[in-house]
Amino acid sequence: MTVFTDLVAGYGRFREHGWAEERERWATLAQGQSPKVMVIACSDSRTDPAMVFDTSPGEIFVVRNVANLVPPFETGGGRHGVSAALEFAVTQLKVEEIVVMGHGSCGGVHAAMTGRFAQADPGEGGFIAHWIDLLDAARDRVTAEHGIGEDAVHALELETVRVSITNLRSFPFVREAEAEGRLTLHGAWFAIKEGVLWVMGEDGEFAPAV
């Protein structure tokens, strides 16, 4: 089990190898970042986008949250962490592509499917419940077609990607950039057990990456 002391030990290895062997790269990165791709992924400890996509520091701008969700555009109430990161990526960094990556065995999807935290208070699952209610309509569609079971859970994992992409397009600056050809949106789903990345096509269906 990795604990904080293990992380500090890992930092020592990084300083000795990763940083020391690429000092020129780190010196360049210290001057600023210019990633071309933003990845919106789940917070799940098993699905690190940098590892899945084999990228180096500075190459992808990453936002991670429960069930890789993007809320719809809104200006009132609350804090808007995903929206702020999205705004920064599109309007300031000028990323050219956004990838929404879902994954198998997603706890957020399981909670949305089972209603595990419904009616819970903050601190007891209430924050989770209010976040994943973004999937309520998708869950209803999925269960109407697949019932409740493994097929339904998998279908809802794919729906998290479609829902997030739909919500991305509710942001005016995303729509504008996409319409002008400055931004492309992609969907993906990572199968943890098989280690296979599935990519969403223009028809909204997923197929293994080649």
TrEMBL record:
Q: Which UniProt keywords are present, listed alphabetically?
A: Lyase, Metal-binding, Zinc
Q: Where is Zn(2+) bound in this sequence? A: C42, D44, H103, C106
Annotated GO biological processes are: carbon utilization
What reaction is this protein's catalytic activity?
Answer: hydrogencarbonate + H(+) = CO2 + H2O
A single GO molecular function term of this UniProt record:
carbonate dehydratase activity
Which PANTHER family does the record associate with it? CARBONIC ANHYDRASE
The gene for this chain is cynT_1
InterPro entries hit by this protein: Beta_CA_cladeB, Carbonic_anhydrase, Carbonic_anhydrase_CS, Carbonic_anhydrase_sf
Q: What does this protein do?
A: Reversible hydration of carbon dioxide.
EC identifiers of the protein: 4.2.1.1
Q: Which cofactor does it need?
A: Zn(2+)
Q: Return the cofactor note field.
A: Binds 1 zinc ion per subunit.
Q: Give the lineage.
A: Bacteria, Pseudomonadati, Pseudomonadota, Alphaproteobacteria, Sphingomonadales
Query: What is the top EC class of this enzyme, as a single word?
Result: lyase
Family, as annotated? Belongs to the beta-class carbonic anhydrase family.
Q: Give the protein's recorded name.
A: Carbonic anhydrase
